[in-house]
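Handout for the seminar on molecular recognition.
Each group receives one record of this type.
Step one: identify the two inputs.
Step two: read the structure output and locate the region that could contact nickel (II) ion.
Step three: write two sentences on what you found, then compare them with the reference statements printed after the record.
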Amino acid sequence: MIRPIILHPDPRLKKTSAEINDLSDDLRTLADDMLETMYAAPGIGLAAPQIGVLTRLIVLDCEKSDEQAPRPIAMFNPRIIASSDEKSAFDEGCLSIPDQYAEVIRPAEVEVAWIDPNGNEQSEVFTDLWATCVQHEIDHLDGKLFIDYLKPLKRQMITRKMVKLKRERAREKA
Ligand code: NI
């Protein structure tokens, strides 16, 4: 089921999400819904707070080119266990901040540990777009958006545009 994505600014996007202690079928269904929502958007990553659920769950699939098979990953309680000193810069966007992009510098490589939908502990080293995406999504679980890395003026400009967009959308619905 496709879930509505919350748009910035929204207090739910600024909250710290809760650790998962018990991997229930409801949470597995939530992960499936999030993947469906992400692919439909379309996007390469989505975090549970973006659909209003303040729990530590992210989904991603950064295999963007058509030649690559899809690689949907759902991560429960993801955490970064190592980061490279080397940095890389990507133009980031966010499904909660549509049509706004800005360069963010992050570690080029990260090792991430998480629990998979079967309850097994996993870990993997991610590079390139995957590294950026997984860091961006984990940030969401701590109430952090990519615009929080930008200079205040740029951040305010994007936020003003988003306030206007939300107002327009609310008017369309009315
Ligand atoms: Ni995002």
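Reference statements: The longest strand covers residues 73-83. The beta strands are 45-47, 57-60, 73-83, 87-94, 97-107, 110-115, 121-126.
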